Amino acid sequence: MVFSSIDFIFRFLPLFLIGYYIAPKNYKNLILLIGSLIFYAWGDGWYLLILLLSVFVNFIFGKLIEGHGQQNQTQKTRLTFLWVIVAFNFALLVLFKYTGFLVENLNVLLKLFNVQLPAANMHLPLGISYFTFMTVSYQVDVYRREIHAANNIVTFGTYVTMFPKLISGPITEYGEIVNGLYFKKISLDNIENGLQTFILGLGAKTILADNMGTLWAGMSRYGYESISCPYAWLGAISYSFQLYFDFFGYSLMAIGIGRMLGFELPKNFDHPYASGSISEFWRRWHITLGKWFKKYIYFPLGGSRCSTIKIVRNTFLVWAFTGLWHGASWNFILWGIIFFGLIMLERFCIGKYLARTHVLKHVYVCFLIPLTWIVFAMRDIGDIGIYFSRLFPFRGSPDFVTTKDFWNALGNYWQLLVACVFFCLPVTEKIYNRFKDSIVIKVILLIIFVFSMIIVNTSTNNPFMYSRF
Amino acid sequence: MNSVFSIIKSHILIFGVVIASIVLAIIFFIQKNNDSSVSENSNNIALSSGQSDSDIHQPATFAVDANGNKITQDINTTTNIENIDNVVAPEDGSTIQTEATETVSNNSFQTVEDGYFHDSLFIGNSRTVGLSLYGSMPEETTFYATVGMNIYDLLTSTAQVPPEEGPEKSFTSVISEKQYGKIYIMLGINDLGTGTSESFAEYYKTIIDTIHQAQPNAIIYIQSIINISAERDAQGDAISNSNINEKNALLEQLANNDYIYYLNVNEVLIDSNGFLNADYTSDGVHLGGGSLSLWEDYLYSHAIVK
Which residues in chain B have their CB less than 8 angstroms from residue A442's CB? Predict the structure, then answer.
């Protein structure tokens, strides 16, 4: 069940909120836990059991790693427990997310010996990439004594499963929301504020991202070899906007719901497209993921305080894993390695020159990022090649290719493209923050809400499609 | 009283959203009930105009039927009447077919020049949009097509004319404001998950009747629904070749060879197994820009001249 659906907004959320608000303080976590499990089962049925297994095992190990009474628990046993649970969590992730990919690649090798394994088509349980990262961060933080283990399984279960962040993050450390878990500040002001953030996200998703998605879908319809060079660029830009507003919108909705429930979830985006370098881009795009990799992989490996060779190795590992985290496919690995290359280039070569420029650094980012997204968007490496040959048609174009496709699309989408650019600028948020309590902004938000819901309703034709469940 | 008012004022969005949600929920609910009482098809697939045609998912099982694939080809490429026994259609199908084959020989297809299409109107879905965007039909050709167009929406639809480029026009105005000499229809790929093949053909007939009323002098060409690639077919949803073949067989029977003709475009597009040749498409449904000339050449060489 996605946040921007009739089911969620008109069914799940209101019912849940009523239950949550009328529940006594001490039972709110329980209600949130139950609600989240229902939310998960609604989307992914019996895979709920995997989530429950993960919660249960991790809760026990959290306690073990913390150590009862501490003196009879040596540092060494604590570390052993940590390794066991980290291995368990990653084993689950690898099993469900990467088995198919591993088998596929093994089969390519095994072909030499005329042996073939059966293809493994595992279903990817919803949100497993996110909740695995959250449970691992919890265990490491307990081990490092940055946090106390959760007092009971309801508290811990609520932390892992809470539905606003369960499926697509933000990847939240236990310490970041421990206040919300034990002392919730629920007030009309917070609800109003959360609702504002939620509607902003809803608008970003349904009005900007989904329309950009339609523009992007047009690229592949008649084959990438059919599109003109400017249309290919427009496509790369539209996909960049779609991805940003989709994920940014989702994160805003998560943060908004979190606030309505008395939690403060961490921010996931900070105007990434306004960055002045690729390294800066990654400090502003999917912030919680970057933070996770930094804290749990990059720093433990030595971070930047070591020899150049080790810095290169550490950065490479982080980016290879970042690529792989996004999906079990070669294009994601390639995509991660491209970022490794760019970030190394900036660190050791062009970074300091770039930083001195004012306009050029933005041109540089705005030129490169859409290209990296093309690699991200296409699972088929051959398609990436064709698309790049349209972006850079040095060998000419087939004669049926005309720039008519570009002008048509521009004619139909220019208003939305302008809006997308506008909402990528930091100044827009400044204006919004200044007037966000004014009645004008609230009326605009209400209109966005109604408009978004009409879009959501008509775009599926049958809004109550899932009523049979 | 004042304090209540100030609470409402400072939390106006909460109240606004709650009220708006209730109103919207009621409207959507009424809308939905109306839809299901008016149309039998409301249980079927939803298709937004933004979706690409290949995004349609409908759980339905149609086995790949090699025989069925062969049929469409046979009926149209041969004058051998023995093959007609294979038609998967009502029993009287074969008689209609026999007549058809005979009439075609009287009123046979000819090869024509660009000028033939100057007074032509092409009606269709994303496949026809592709023809308009990337094809090289004469500039005078009129296209009425949108991505996602299906037969049930056509009569009440609006579309940009030319597709994705010009101003929005209603279908009614397009067929009433000018008389065309030829009208080419290519619809059906978005209807594969809706209703039965019989109800599809029945409604298709309604469309032809409507067009014929508005355009009594136009030759109406029913173009066969183009088959899909083997890879797309293997996805196993309603978008299957056997389903397309079944509908094409019924569409062919709509031809009266007086003013309605059936064009088996598939003849030049499918491979020996009846699938859309993988070289001609990248998504398995739409022809790529470089393959449209096959379709065009077929139309140029299969024209009725009166």
Answer: 12-13, 16
What is the token pair recorded at B185?
């229809």
Count of domains forming chain B: 3
Same domain (yes/no): B93, B121: no
Contacts of A409 in chain B (CB under 8 A): 164
Strand partners, B281: B287
- Predicted pLDDT at A377: 92
B294 and B180, same domain (yes or no): yes
Query: What range defines the domain where residue B64 resides?
Result: 58-97
Flag whether B248 is in a domain: yes
Is residue B24 domain-shared with residue B120, that is, in the same domain?
no
Q: What SS3 state is found at A247? A: helix
B25–A195 C-beta distance less than 8 A: no
Q: Burial, B49: exposed, middle or buried (Cβ in 10 Å; 0-12, 13-18, 19+)?
A: middle
ipTM of the complex: 0.78
How far does A462 lie from chain B, in Å, by closest CA? 7
Determine the average pLDDT of the residues in A72-100. 90
Task: Tell me, yes or no, whether B210 lies in a domain.
Answer: yes
pTM: 0.83
Interface test with B, best of A8, A216, A221, A467 (most B CBs within 10 A): A221
Smallest CA–CA distance, residue A192 to chain B, in Å, is 6
Residue in A195, A222, A407 to test binding to B, most B beta-carbons within 10 Å: A222
- For residues B80 and B122, membership in a common domain is answered with no
Distances (CA, A) of A311 to A26, A152, A338, A339: 48, 40, 16, 15
Q: Is the pLDDT of residue B92 over 80?
A: no
Q: What is the CATH number of the domain that holds B139?
A: 3.40.50.1110
Residues of B in contact with A454 (CB under 8 A): 24
CA distance A76 to B68: 70
User: Do B136 and B93 reside in the same domain of the chain?
Assistant: no
CB A8 within 8 A of CB A164: no
Q: Is residue B223 part of a domain?
A: yes
Tell me if A400 and B289 make a contact (CB, 8 A cut-off): yes
Size of interface A-B (CB pairs under 8 A): 136
Question: Which pLDDT score, from 0 to 100, does residue A73 have?
Answer: 67
Active site residues of A: 326
By C-alpha distance, which of B198, B227, B203, B220 is closest to B123? B220
Contact with chain A for residue B58, Cβ under 8 A: no
Instruction: Read off the pLDDT of residues A272-312 as tens digits, 9 standing for 90 and up.
Output: 999 999 999 999 999 999 999 999 999 999 888 888 899 99
User: Hey, what are A73's tokens?
Assistant: 């628990």
Domain membership of residue B40 (yes or no) is: no
Report pLDDT for A373.
96
Residue B180 near residue B219, CB atoms below 8 Å: no
Closest CA–CA distance from residue A368 to any residue of chain B (Å): 26
Q: Once rounded to an integer, what is the mean pLDDT over residues B155-180?
A: 92
